[in-house]
Amino acid sequence: METERIVGLASSIGALVGGVVGFAVNWWWKWRAEADRIQVHYGTAHYEETPAYGMHVINRSGHKVEVTHYGFVLGDGSLYSIPEHWAQSFGDDASEDLVSGSTLLQGRNDRYEALIHAHLKEGVIGAYARTAAQKQLSFDFPTHTNVTMWRRWRLRVKHWR
Asked: Where are the transmembrane segments (predicted)?
């Protein structure tokens, strides 16, 4: 009689734990499916040699994503916004800049690319971007810029939003 009560109690506790874990896993999968996921790359998408600074963003989500904030990480750790560059450029300053795609990425693997012909004294060490639904920035620091892991981590923490 006593063993039946222990077995029943253990079964009830197991069912409760299984239900809670199942709920948590399903909620997490749903949250991950609806989250914006982008991949940022410093350089051109087609690996063309150009004197300009280039970056591109790839949509890794299964839904529409709008890229709202993007640009370059400068050598001193500051951010250089491409939309601000274009807003402040007058006349022919931005006439040689190139854009491929739209900042509204329609589906998976859709891409947006921007190249600017600016003279940046600090030099560019990486690229960054953020979507309308994200709070944090996504970064890319290519290996040819020789940015240490410690500095990458510091820059990510510095620009955490």
From this structure: 6-29
